[in-house]
Specification:
Order of helices and strands: EEHEHEHEHEHEHEHHEHHHEEEE
CATH topology: TIM Barrel
Radius of gyration: 19 Å
CATH superfamily: Metal-dependent hydrolases
Structural class: alpha/beta
Shape: globular
CATH architecture: Alpha-Beta Barrel
Strand content: 15-25%
Number of strands: 13
Number of helices: 11
Largest sheet: 8 strands, parallel
Bound molecules: (4S)-2,6-dioxohexahydropyrimidine-4-carboxylic acid, zinc ion
Length: about 350
C-alpha cells in the first residue's frame, strides 16, 4: 500500500504554549489537523472559563490567516476549582474538558491537584454535565519508581475515580503500558485513551542510545519494547476506545539540552506521518482512519470532519531544527527519514 485517503484527523492532546512560542508552533498543528484539544498547563495555568476563552482568542489570533483550525479548550483542575466553572464549561461552545494533573507530575503542574478527594465535588459535577475528565495518569512522590508511575496511578487513583463516578467520561491520556491498555479495554465505553506517536515508535532504550538523548525524554517516559508493542496493537485494533493525541510538547533546544532538561517531545510538525509510520510497522492500516479521525469525535460527541487528506508513501527528511520564538527546537525524528508524507490536505 502506498497511498491512503482518510477523513481529516484531529489531535486530542496538544500543548500550544503561549506567546511568543505559540506563534511558532500553532501553524504546524493547523496544517495537519482540523481540531485539537489544547492543554491548559500554562504558567499561570488556564483554570477558569474566562482564562480558557482568553487563551482561545490568543490562539486564533496567532493562526495563519487562511486556517480552518479549531482549538478545543480545557480547564486545569486545582484543589480549589469552582463548580460554576464546570457548569459554564459544559454549556460553552469552546470548552470541551477539564484536565487532572497530579501536583508535581509534569510541566507546570505544581498548582494542580494534591489529592483526588479534593476534587470529588468537581468530578460529581463533571459526571452530571458529562464533561470529560482528561487524566495525566502518573502517581507522584519520591518513592514511586518512574517506570511504575502509570500503573501505580491506576491502582491508587484512577480505579477509585472509575468506581466512584461510573458515568464520568474519562480519557486516560498518553498511555504507555500494556496494563493501561488492558485497564481501558476493561472499563468499556465511558473510558478512552490517547496514544502518542512517540510512544508508538520508541521504547525506553531510545533515551539512552550511546549517551543520554534529551529529545526522547517525555512524561510519562517511554517503557519497555513489550509495552510499545501493546500500544501499537491497541492503536491499530478495531477498538473505538483508542485515538490519536500527540502530546506534542515543545521546549526550546536549550531547555531540553540542560542539566535538568524539560520533559516533552515535539511531534506536531509531522504528527500524521509519524502515526502512519507506526501503523506501517504494525503492517495494518485497516483501522488507521478510525484511530486518527473517527474514535475521538465519537467519544467527545462531536461531528466527524468533512474534509479528507491524502498520504503518499514517499521518503523525506524531518528538519534538524525549527524556530521557537527567538530560540529553536528539535522536532521528533530530527534529521531522520520518514516514509509517509501528507500530500493533499483541504
Ligand atoms: O512530556 C510531557 N510534556 N509530558 C507532559 O505531561 C507535559 C508536557 C509539557 O507540557 O511539557
Ligand atoms: Zn500533555
Amino acid at each position: 500500500m502506498n497511498r491512503l485517503t482518510i477523513i481529516k484527523p484531529d489531535d486530542w492532546h496538544l500543548h500550544l504554549r503561549d506567546s511568543p512560542y505559540l506563534e511558532s508552533v500553532v501553524g504546524d498543528s493547523a496544517r495537519q489537523f482540523a481540531r485539537a484539544i489544547v492543554m491548559p498547563n500554562l504558567s499561570p495555568p488556564v483554570k477558569t472559563c474566562k482564562d480558557a476563552l482568553a487563551y482561545r482568542k490568543r490562539i486564533l489570533s496567532a493562526l495563519p490567516s487562511d486556517h480552518q483550525f479549531q482549538p478545543l479548550m480545557t480547564l486545569y483542575l486545582t484543589d480549589n476549582s469552582d463548580i460554576e466553572d464546570i457548569k459554564n464549561a459544559s454549556r460553552s461552545d469552546y470548552i470541551f474538558a477539564a484536565k487532572l494533573y497530579p501536583a508535581g507530575a509534569t510541566t507546570n503542574s505544581d498548582a494542580a491537584v494534591t489529592d483526588i478527594k479534593h476534587i470529588y465535588p468537581i468530578l460529581d459535577a463533571m459526571q452530571e454535565y458529562q464533561l470529560p475528565l482528561l487524566v495525566h495518569g502518573e502517581a507522584t512522590g519520591d518513592g514511586v519508581d518512574i517506570f511504575d508511575r502509570e500503573n501505580r496511578f491506576i491502582d491508587t487513583s484512577l480505579n477509585a475515580m472509575r468506581i466512584d463516578f461510573p458515568e464520568l467520561p474519562i480519557v486516560f491520556e498518553h498511555i504507555t503500558t500494556r496494563e493501561a491498555v488492558d485497564y481501558v479495554v476493561a472499563q468499556g465505553s465511558k473510558m478512552a485513551a490517547t496514544i502518542t506517536p512517540h510512544h508508538l515508535l520508541i521504547n525506553r532504550n531510545a533515551m539512552f542510545s550511546n549517551g543520554f538523548r534529551p529529545h526522547h525524554y517525555c512524561l510519562p517516559v517511554a517503557k519497555r519494547e513489550s509495552h510499545r508493542l501493546a500500544l501499537l496493537k491497541a492503536a491499530s485494533s478495531d477498538s473505538n476506545q483508542f485515538f490519536a493525541g500527540t502530546d506534542s510538547a515543545p521546549h526550546s533546544r536549550q531547555a531540553k539540552e540542560s542539566a535538568c532538561g524539560c520533559a516533552g517531545i515535539y511531534s506536531a510538525y509531522c504528527a500524521i506521518e509519524l502515526y502512519a509510520e507506526a501503523f506501517d510497522l504494525a503492517g495494518d492500516f485497516s483501522n488507521f482512519e478510525a484511530f486518527m479521525s473517527l474514535n475521538g469525535p465519537a467519544f467527545y460527541r462531536l461531528p466527524v470532519n468533512n474534509s479528507k487528506i491524502v498520504l503518499q508513501k514517499s521518503s523525506w527528511t524531518v528538519p534538524e531544527t525549527l524556530p521557537f520564538g527567538q530560540q529553536s527546537l528539535v522536532p521528533f525524528k530530527a534529521g531522520q527519514k520518514l516514509q509517509w508524507k501528507v500530500t493533499s490536505n483541504d
